[in-house]
Request: fold
Amino acid sequence: MASMAAKIKTVAGSPLTADKFAAVGDPSNPDTWHLPLDTHDHVNSALDMYAHTDLPSSQKAPAARKIVERAKEEGLDTTDFVKNHLPSQQTHGEAPRPWIEIFRAGDYTGANKGKITRADLDRVVKNYDPTYHEAPNTIGHPADDKPAYGWIDGLMVDGDTLLAREKQVDPKFNELRQAGKFKKRSAAFYCNDDGSIKGLRHVAYLGAQPPEVKGLQDVAFDDRGSKFITVDFGEDGTVAETKSIGEQVKDALVSLLGIGGGPKTFAESDVTRIATEAATAAAAPLQAKIASLETDLKNSTAKFAERETALAGGEVKQRATEAVTRLKSKGHWVPAFDKQGLPLVFDELAKITTTVEFGEGDQKKKVTPLETLVLFMESFPKIVPGGRVVEGGGASRGKGTTGDPLTDAAKARQKEKNITFGEALKEIAEEHPELTLAGSAAGGAV
Reply:
């Protein structure tokens, strides 16, 4: 019987077999073959078009790796491509926003999780939407009131491994993590009604050393109506065993009593002592770890609060100071305001960040209460005239005059109309603005 002819797909006039394409969905269906790699130009195009090609998640990583291999053969630069599409092939420490392995598909029946497949991970990646639920990095497994030490910006699957890309990671937490203080991590997933995973809830970091108690009791509780499970990983990336304290005591007895290596005789007090010692030894690391994490969390929370309070106070004082400086520079502030405590009013208004709106149409403005007061004070004529201070000799003055034309005119107007000196000064300044100019000897008369 004649052999079936090899399937081909024609690209730019060239007949190509499936092995000449980066992505091959069905070898028997050329319509599922994408991104040809037969020529230098096609490889270069594949580097550019990969991100815009709608490939199933199961084909993405293999296709990317094949493109990189061919690009290197053609002498093309793949640095940016690897950084964006094959993060597991770059050194995490060199990546500005590293991808971190948080889970691997496998059979976790022994840990009471069942089988979690590559298809399950693809579903988690597809469902992840940071705008709807942004998974946090946490210390321990929070309910809903613990601080986040970073956020998961994106997920991807490479082979059977689930990778997470982080953002806004707390610098102090990252230092502790890089120093090896949090080597054990745990991924928490939301579940469907049938128990299969559907979305990432959070990534928890659980302590500095691989646990002596192999696997803590799994957390499973309602989260606004949604169930979720956690899977703990040790320093070597393997899933931890799930054993109760009773099972650990039983294992200790088997080891200590030599079961399987010949019978041993022991008194009832021996059994009680061995069981107590085993239970204490099993629980001690957990208790110490909890106490240490609680202390670290309290210290971190206190430091963050102090830092935020200090920063907020400094920003408030700066806003008030800038407002006063602005008024002084424009001649709308006199020393008497300082003596009357007006700067304290500015300090209090600077604490209010809500805005008020006034005006109509294009003239409509939104300003804070502090800005409103500044604009109000600036709407009046200058109350500190410009110019130089002139003392004036007695021979040049008439009786009851100061030698300052603006001041003398204002005093005369005050007496004439029986109004305050400030009102008189304002009228004279508006009627005779030349008296406020430099050289008019008006400065310092207020």
Q: What stands out?
A: The radius of gyration is 38 Å. Residues 9-85 form one domain.
